[in-house]
UniProtKB/TrEMBL annotation:
Domain of life: Eukaryota
Lineage of source species: Eukaryota, Fungi, Fungi incertae sedis, Chytridiomycota, Chytridiomycota incertae sedis
Biological process terms in GO annotation: protein export from nucleus; RNA export from nucleus
Protein's recorded name: ARM repeat-containing protein
Listed Acidic residues bias regions: 994-1011
InterPro entries: ARM-like (IPR011989), ARM-type_fold (IPR016024), Exportin-5_C (IPR045478), XPO1/5 (IPR045065)
Positions of region (Disordered): 988-1011
All copies of domain Exportin-5 C-terminal, residue ranges: 370-1220
GO cellular component, one term: RNA nuclear export complex
GO MF term (any one): nuclear export signal receptor activity
Family matches, as Pfam families: Exportin-5 (PF19273)
SUPFAM superfamilies: ARM repeat
Length: 1275
């Protein structure tokens, strides 16, 4: 029977690996092998097939499969009682015999993958049987190692490495349970004899004594020094084999020596993180590994780096004489190790030299992938040395040869690879920020070169797409596979460089300012330039200049302030005299001007020339071109104008009182510019905003400011209050007609299938003129809305700057508010209503595309940059016209939401007026079922949050009591339903993170490959964004006041409230106390809000769920003191968090959930049994287990211990990631799907007609019927 079964296993494996077998035959063979694993005869047959002597003819695949069966049996059956003591002893003896055979004289004939599997099986036996059943393991492994053949040593090292990794490095459940049995003997095996003799009285010493390591004739394995020394020997043998035309002694070739060196280094790498420092020092590990780094083999150098890095990354103590720090610094800085690192770096570039000048020239050439990996390994090691061992907290000085070290780092910084350069810049940043190193002479000598390097790197990174083939591009190709990866790599490296510029500026502010100023001066003296290279270099210099000046301005003291301002004034004078013609360069000049103004102000003698220059640029156009065009040149000119106007606004905000001194002249110039024909309506509004800022932020008397303010805003207010404005807001039909929908619909019907042809070719002049007039009307409306937002947001900026209400600013608007508020609310109501499908029935079906998300809006939702639409109006197609219509409608809606969100900052008067209270709810929610996720998100973020948070207490009842219950009920149920639908379709996990910039949609109106960004992906992203916005709204409502660090703590004992003990938690103080109290005191208001918290916690969105958990812990700390909320906390909230813990989607946030569960259980335990009752309903949970858990929980005083107890209790219902579903563990894991959970009483589910008011009397219903409940927690 055994023979027959063995042949069946052989046949099944042969079928699977046969190229001629059909899929059906392979499936049948796989089914047999799967069933064979669980059969009673599996173990004896596997023991036979895996044995090289018993079945010498077995193919390697069969032997590997048999070993995997043995591994499974040991892992799953050893502790379950399935195996008898005799079986266990037989397996131990078999494992020892297998090691002797596979690592013996025929080791070279055993395939590498079989040897590795043998090592894995042996380690599984070791983890459950050592040292009790296998005292001689260390002697067995050492014996096969000392055979001194590469194959036998590889077998021993594989066992040793795998055992070390499972016990110390990996989260192995078997090793974790027996760690106290495995760690001491394993440490005894690896430590040097001298160190081991010092710890004879410890657990390690006892383990060594049990293994016979003390006494006469004792043999020490001493793996740490043995492996370090052997790695050097094998590297030297590799060098000799490379130079020798024939095999060296022992018949070894270079390849075998190389593999042996790698094996030793990999085994050593598994030890260096946990071996005591003294053991590493005795074994001279650091120096020997660094010595191997000089090997000619790139693979050996990569392995050496992988060994060195975890050792260097160990956390040393805070003192200079810390043993771990000395272990690293002494060999590197005092014993020649630094030169070995330099030599290794040079060797990777084909230059085995320690001369940095020679290496600098060599590193300009690119290298292959293996050598590049070796370079990165060395650079990472150098970085860790600098960041963790040289620049430590209490460092009082620098090590010897520190100058050589920073010279080396500067050399690496100049490497053509952005990744390598970024690593070195990170190290530079640490050195420049550390007080012991930043002011040294060695560092000072490199500052100018460092600034030059960052400037060049910035230019390179900003122009990767236009660079000719070079070493940089080849390195980028090795580090990044998609353009999205390239973009992230470039942004990260660029940020590192600018961080270094800021750090240099903090050390030498005047020196840095002079350097960047003169760099720019030299650039401007070269002329205006015209080619892309010249413009790109100037852009890089501008970026570095801005970073340096902004950083140095904060560090300049009084002793050098005059020199600092004088240097910047010189630069500003040069900018005024400079006459660039290219739009990009003009914008550079404007940016530099504002940067200088922000850092040092504008000298009085230069103020007028600066303002005059900015006014000149504000009407910039190309020579001979019409002011307003849709060409590319026209777009560049608009960018210049917008940049210049923004600069004027910024300068006006910084120096308002100075401008108020000659405000009439400023206003006259603004009037001249606005009255011209160059600016668009939006640009004119932004120019007027310049005057608005001067008035807003000046400290002049309120009456004088009011006069000037009225003069600025009245023309715009008149448009909002005009009778004609209200007329087209009477109904959706009139508004759509005002937008020109009828005319566009006619063109759609006329054009038909020719929508992609230019309109000039498919319609007559009259129709084209009509379309342009309609577009002009829509733009006028957008400009009007945008201008009002632009003016109103200054109110919000003043609030942010002053951190308090400024009545002088608010009062400026009081006389104008009620001229605009009715129209604003009316427009908001109409904008919402036009999304109702009924309003579009009279138009061509193709017109409804203006209600959908545009391609650029989809790209922005996916965190991708937008792509501009074609600018040439002469070739505009109907598709592009509709895309522009759609974009304008979206922009109007968003700007309108911004206006509505700023109104609450205009004072309580807005809330107390019936003209607002009676209209705001119908205006915001006239058609909630027609609002899309994108609309809800912006409405919640921009309008509802400030509207609710800023609501005065006196208006809670007429406003919030009517708005909050139906709002939260509707959005909460919508999210719950939408997530269910999304789960049924399948969550697009990780899809949104890999989208490439060059993939997907084109700009609005262009044909693009829409399959790359599918509707499912976009819809999921929008749903996630809405869920996050909804969670943020609730977390802001229940925001906790930050404790006053200067407050005196109240130490008086508080009396207990009633006969029962109070909840075991301190109640927080909410920031919006009156709002929170109002919500929690009204059942009809609080129920849908609390239900929404549960919805957020249980959805497959980790960011929102984390926010929901944060809300839950805040509420728990408060509600636990009120008995009427114990049912909600102990049942509904506790169950929701259990469900989230069970969901595999939330695997990364399980520690957060466990903390919250522990906090709720701890707070309610003294006052309620509800959490224990909920725990009792879980699978495989009984009263006895809960009783034992509670008894243990009470003993724990530290929170982390309580969390660990909760984690252990809930281990069987904790979700695991999908990738781990089929991984054999010693504990079974329950997997279920998400289920419906929320039951809202029908009486609370109101039909939302404008989110109508709840009827009187509903709050008096039976509270038990209205309590939130969770159903079917687990299927």
């Amino acid at each position: 029977m055994a023979s027959l079964s063995e042949s069946q296993v052989n046949d099944a494996l042969a079928t699977i690996y046969s190229p001629s077998a059909s899929n059906q035959q392979r499936k049948a063979a796989q089914a047999f092998l799967d069933s064979f694993r669980s059969s009673p005869s599996a173990l004896p047959i596997a023991l036979s097939l895996a044995h090289p002597i018993r079945t010498p003819a077995a193919p390697p695949e069969t032997r590997h499969y048999a070993l995997s069966v043995i591994e499974d049996v040991v892992r799953t059956n050893w502790e379950s009682g399935t195996l008898s003591d005799q079986d266990k002893a037989g397996i131990v003896a078999y494992a020892e015999e297998l090691v002797q055979i596979v690592g013996g004289e025929h080791a070279a004939q055993v395939q590498q993958f079989v040897r590795e599997k043998v090592a894995k099986v042996v380690v599984e036996v070791v983890k459950v049987a050592w040292p009790e059943m296998w005292q001689g393991l260390y002697g067995t492994v050492l014996g096969i190692y000392l055979r001194n053949t590469p194959a036998s040593q590889d077998t021993a090292l594989s066992i040793l490495r795998t055992l070390c990794e499972d016990v110390f490095l990996y989260d192995d459940p078997v090793a974790a349970r027996r760690k106290k049995h495995l760690v001491p003997p394993l440490q005894a095996m690896v430590l040097p004899a001298s160190v081991l003799s010092e710890v004879q009285d410890s657990d390690v010493g006892e383990a060594a004594r049990a293994m016979g390591m003390f006494g006469e004739g004792a043999v020490f394995s001493e793996w740490v020094p043995r492996l370090a020394e052997a790695a050097v020997v094998w590297a030297q043998r590799y060098e000799a084999a490379v130079d020798s035309p024939t095999p060296i002694a022992g018949g070894l070739d270079a390849c075998e020596c190389e593999k042996a060196a790698e094996s030793h280094l990999r085994a050593l790498a598994s030890m260096v993180e946990w071996v005591p420092v003294k053991g590493l020092a005795e074994g001279k590990v650091v120096y020997r590994v660094v010595e191997v780094l000089a090997c000619r083999s790139a693979r050996v150098r990569v392995a050496a780096s992988a060994t060195l890095l975890p050792l260097l990354s160990r956390t040393p103590g805070p003192t200079p004489d810390d043993p771990l720090r000395l272990l690293v610094l002494t060999p590197l800085f005092s014993q020649g190790g630094l030169d070995l690192l330099v030599s290794s770096y040079g060797r990777a570039h084909g230059c085995p030299s320690t001369d940095l000048t020679v290496i600098r020239e060599a590193q300009r050439r690119d290298v292959g992938e293996e050598e590049y990996a070796a370079v990165k390994g060395v650079v990472q090691a150098v970085g860790v040395v600098g960041e963790d061992h040289v620049c430590f907290k209490r460092a009082g000085g620098v090590p010897e040869n520190f100058g050589r070290f920073v010279d080396f780092i500067q050399l690496i910084t100049e490497h053509p690879s952005p990744t390598i350069a970024a690593m070195a810049l990170t190290t530079w940043h640490t050195i420049l920020k550390h007080e012991a190193t930043c002011q040294t002479v060695e560092v000072a000598t490199h500052l100018s070169a460092l600034l030059e390097t960052v400037t060049t790197l910035t230019f390179t990174l900003d122009n990767l797409s236009s660079l000719p083939p070079s070493a940089t591009l080849r390195y980028v190709g090795m580090d990044a596979t998609t353009s999205s990866d390239v973009r992230q790599l470039a942004l990260a490296a660029r940020a590192r460089g600018l961080d270094v510029v800021k750090a240099v500026s903090a050390i030498k502010p005047l020196h840095t300012c002079v350097w960047v100023a003169r760099k720019l001066a030299n650039r401007m003296q070269m002329g205006v330039g015209g080619d892309a290279l010249w413009v790109g270099m100037m852009h890089a210099e501008v970026v570095v200049f801005e970073s340096a000046v902004k950083a140095s301005g904060k560090m300049v003291d009084e002793t050098i302030m005059s020199q600092y301002k004088e240097e910047l004034a010189k630069t500003l004078s040069m900018l005024i005299a400079y006459q660039p013609t290219l739009p990009k360069v003009v914008r550079f000049v404007i940016h530099l001007t504002t940067t200088i103004a922000e850092a040092a102000g504008i000298p009085p003698d230069l103020l007028f020339p600066v303002v005059e220059k900015l006014f000149t640029y504000s009407i910039y156009v190309y020579a001979g071109e019409a002011p307003v065009t849709n060409t590319t040149r026209g777009s560049e000119a608009r960018d210049v104008r917008m940049t210049s106007i923004s600069a004027l606004v910024k300068v006006g905000t910084m120096m308002p009182d100075t401008f108020m001194g000659f405000y009439d002249k400023v206003a006259e110039e603004i009037g001249r510019v606005v009255g011209g024909e160059v600016l668009t309506d939006l640009e004119k509004a932004q120019m007027v905003d310049f005057a608005m800022c001067i008035v807003y932020f000046s400290s002049y008397p309120a009456d004088q400011k009011q006069t000037l303010f009225d003069r600025i805003v009245e023309p715009y207010i008149a448009d909002w209050a005009a009778p004609g404005f209200a007329q087209f807001l009477t109904s959706p039909a009139t508004f759509l007609q005002f937008l020109g929908c009828g005319q566009v619909s006619d063109v759609i019907m006329l054009v038909g299938a020719r929508a992609e042809e230019p309109l000039t070719a498919v319609v007559d002049i009259a129709t084209l003129t009509t379309l342009k007039q309609c577009e002009h009307t829509r733009r006028k409306l957008y400009y009007l809305v945008q201008a009002l937002w632009m003016f109103l947001k200054r109110t919000l900026e003043v609030h942010k700057k002053t951190k308090s209400d400024d009545p002088s600013v608010v009062n400026l608007w009081l006389s104008h508010l009620w001229k605009i508020v009715p129209s604003v609310l009316g427009l908001a109501r109409i904008i919402h209503l036009i999304w109702e499908p009924v309003n579009w029935e009279q138009y061509a079906p193709g017109l409804k595309v203006v209600l959908t998300m545009g391609n650029n809006e989809r790209r922005l939702a996916m965190s991708l940059p937008s792509k501009p639409a074609p600018l040439d109006s002469a070739s505009q197609t109907l598709t592009q016209h509709l895309a522009a219509f759609r974009s304008l409608l979206t922009n109007i809606r968003e700007a309108l939401y911004h206006i509505l969100g700023i109104l609450p900052f205009c004072g309580d008067e807005i809330y107390n007026d019936s003209r607002f209270l009676d209209v705001v709810i119908p205006a915001l929610f006239p058609a909630p079922f027609c609002m899309e996720d994108r609309h809800w998100r912006i409405l919640i973020n921009n309008v509802l949050r400030p509207l609710i948070i800023g609501c005065p207490q006196g208006v809670f009842t007429p406003l919030l009591e009517q708005m909050l219950p139906p709002l939260f009920d509707f959005v909460g149920r919508k999210l719950d339903n939408d997530w269910k639908v999304m789960a049924e379709k399948g969550i697009q996990e990780n899809t949104t993170e890999t989208m490439d910039e060059d993939e997907g949609l084109d700009g609005d109106g262009n044909q693009g490959d829409e399959d790359e960004i599918t509707d499912e992906i976009v819809n999921e992203r929008m749903l996630r964004m809405l869920t996050g916005a909804f969670a943020d709204l609730i977390v802001h409502i229940f925001e906790v006041k930050k404790p006053d660090p200067n407050a005196v703590k109240d130490t008086t004992e508080q009396p207990k409230k009633g006969p029962r003990a109070t909840a075991n938690v301190v109640a927080p103080e909410f920031l919006h106390k009156s709002l929170t109290e109002f919500i929690l005191a009204h059942p009809i208001v609080r129920r849908p809000i609390l239900a929404s918290v549960l919805v957020i916690i249980m959805q497959p969105d980790s960011n929102a769920a984390k926010t929901g958990i944060r809300i839950a812990t805040r509420l728990n700390a408060f509600l636990a003191h009120h008995i009427e909320f114990h049912e909600f906390l102990g049942k509904d909230l506790f169950s929701a968090m259990l469900k989230a813990l069970h969901d595999p989607y939330h695997i990364e946030m399980q520690p957060v959930i466990l903390n919250a569960l522990t906090e709720v259980y701890s707070s309610l335990r003294p006052v309620s049994n509800i959490p224990r009752e909920v725990l009792a309903t879980l699978p495989q949970m009984d009263e006895g287990r809960i009783y034992d858990f509670d008894k243990e929980f009470v003993k724990k005083t530290a929170v982390k211990d309580q969390v660990q107890a909760m984690k252990s209790l809930l281990s069987k219902v904790t979700g695991v990631s999908i990738s781990q579903w089929f991984k054999r563990e010693d504990l079974p894991t329950l997997h279920t799907t998400r289920t419906a959970f929320l039951r809202t009483p029908q009486s609370q589910r109101k039909q939302l007609n404008g989110i109508g008011k709840l009827e009187d009397g509903e709050a008096g219903q039976d509270d038990k019927d209205a309590e939130l409940a969770l159903e079917n927690l687990f299927e």
